[in-house]
Amino acid sequence: MKTIPILSSLLAAAVAASIGTTQAATLETERYSIEVNALVDGLANPWGMAFLPDSSLLITEKGGALKHVKLDGTTRTLTGVPEVVAVGQGGLLDVAIDPDFAENQLVYLSYSEADPAGGDGNSTAVARGELGDNGLENVEVIFRGAPKYNSRQHFGSRLVFSPEGHLYITLGDRGSRMQDAQTLDNHHGKVVRIWPDGGVPEDNPFVDTDGALPEIWSYGHRNVQGAALHPDSGELWTVEHGPKGGDEINIPEAGSNYGWPVVTYGVNYDNSIITRETHKDGTEQPFYYWVPSIATSNMMFYTGDAFPQWQGDLFVGALRGQQVARLDMEDGRIMHEEALLTDRVGRIRDIEQGPDGYIYVITDDRNGSLVQIKPAE
Amino acid sequence: MKTIPILSSLLAAAVAASIGTTQAATLETERYSIEVNALVDGLANPWGMAFLPDSSLLITEKGGALKHVKLDGTTRTLTGVPEVVAVGQGGLLDVAIDPDFAENQLVYLSYSEADPAGGDGNSTAVARGELGDNGLENVEVIFRGAPKYNSRQHFGSRLVFSPEGHLYITLGDRGSRMQDAQTLDNHHGKVVRIWPDGGVPEDNPFVDTDGALPEIWSYGHRNVQGAALHPDSGELWTVEHGPKGGDEINIPEAGSNYGWPVVTYGVNYDNSIITRETHKDGTEQPFYYWVPSIATSNMMFYTGDAFPQWQGDLFVGALRGQQVARLDMEDGRIMHEEALLTDRVGRIRDIEQGPDGYIYVITDDRNGSLVQIKPAE
Ligand SMILES: [Ca+2]
Ligand SMILES: [Ca+2]
């Protein structure tokens, strides 16, 4: 395999590159020399990915296509995807497979859907279907965000299963509806927790609260585009895309308020002050935050054998920040942050650990890539 | 007061500037607009400072002078300072006042001293004396590092009193003697704890260990140039200057080994690997670390009223890094790091909170300054 530099400009220019083209670079990091390989090019703004038991992947493209991708570069488009509203930040978003996929072949998709009643609004929704030879079959919608609202912004969303089999769905505040994040009568700016069939767990925190939507797990979020289970505690961790400054890692607890937009470490994109307040009774502090924003996407705890010294560390992808932030975790605290891949691979939209213990990212680009990170030999 | 830019080059060029010249700049930080004033110029490589009850300061100069400085810029040189070995990193180092200074007028100085027996070695030592009208009187040496060793490197040292009245002295590994940091028969790479009269506390961790020096509190340090008591817990916190990469914050516990040079996050200045190992049984992990090194000097917990949103935060000065790192602390964890004063003031050698709640730093320069940081109006 040739080793040539990967540059985002080079990738962006290589629109005509054929699927399966490999471009590799060896990079030095604090603990490892790593080899970075673009296994697949030509993905149109890929958003989410999930490994199947055979080490192939499902990858969503924001425009609405679901791809089945093998690590050798073979790619095909699957059928059965719900219609999506591909505007602004909306479209086909995350993909996850059922914890019992080997038995039930269930695949879950999050996406922005038009108002089924015909209004001009939209919202995040989640559907599931059985993966057959050509695509998804017996597709059913298991979650519809409320209310429908006409916006191109802040749909979330990541899909994560709890150890007990709940499905967490992370959502966004829909931009101009940011105040909704503080009230419980809507799904904007919330993390929700449902059963995979769409049912509401009876121990959800607001099931007995008048006027509250029972799916809500936590609130006061801005745009949660990253989520992962902590490998030891089983807790949900999330990362939310802040305003200019103020990207946050949170550990959302049942019924807790993470403060947006009442308290934040961010400022608006035009530098106007949102609030000087960072603490308020009844709101939780982030576990960690970035100012200025790196524009966080998804997060991943590393548990593999390929990089023993990275075990337990938290990896966070960044869009505008064009990096993967490695947060060196020790005894529950962050000891250090290292920026990996800086300006070498592009805007990182999703990050996952493969069954081989390597790390995989997809890049947010019209000619997006699936990139593999493994130890250099 | 005129507001003109402070630039380190400007300060460095202003060798002829008279004492008391004020140069002010208004800088934006994440939480405050701050005004940065150089109250005093013309300090020759100042190293340590301590406020007196009347809000004037004692400031050491590395060459061996102890200055009495008022915030209006008045400066005089005090007498009674022990002779120092002003070579390389050695000289007159830290200064601290006794917790009962109002009653006993005792001032403590750390410095590098020549071998009293006439050998060519040197070590860190600590002396104390009573502050009279013109300087220190009745000076006595209360600590002498062992062994004496002929080196220009890594003397530590900061002086911090515990809530119970012990005196912590932070030390360095003397450079080429770095392996000494792992053995208990010497003071190299140690934090020691004594009584202010030089006596050894009977509950020190190694008082009953054969062959161990009884002053030792913790070991496995490289060059501890910063220390502070946590304002709530009363614990000693230290920051040590690492190799290229690997500056560490530690919370030294009695008898614990902080790993140097067996485990470290650093590499040598020539980029050669010290060790790929970061964890080893019997050694403690840092609380936080920097790679690359910012070249840490002293640290300070902020407890004042001038900057309410900075209360509880940890501020760490940096030499080559030419900044003050603000570590935003919440519930015992670091949520965020902000670089303050970057490349605006110069190499920061010491940082202290004043009785007025403002923050004061001194700069390591032949024409060093005392700089005041207060909220902009
Ligand atoms: Ca928040
Ligand atoms: Ca260490």
Automatic annotation (TrEMBL), chains A, B:
Annotated keywords: Signal
Glucose/Sorbosone dehydrogenase domain sequence ranges: 43-371
Keyword set includes Ubl conjugation: no
Tree of life domain: Bacteria
Signal peptide per UniProt: 1-24
InterPro entries noted in UniProt: 6-blade_b-propeller_TolB-like (IPR011042), Glc/Sorbosone_DH (IPR012938), Quinoprot_gluc/sorb_DH_b-prop (IPR011041)
Cross-referenced Gene3D superfamilies: TolB, C-terminal domain
PANTHER family, per database record: ALDOSE SUGAR DEHYDROGENASE YLII, HEDGEHOG-INTERACTING PROTEIN
The protein's name in its UniProt record: Oxidoreductase
UniProt lineage: Bacteria, Pseudomonadati, Pseudomonadota, Gammaproteobacteria, Alteromonadales
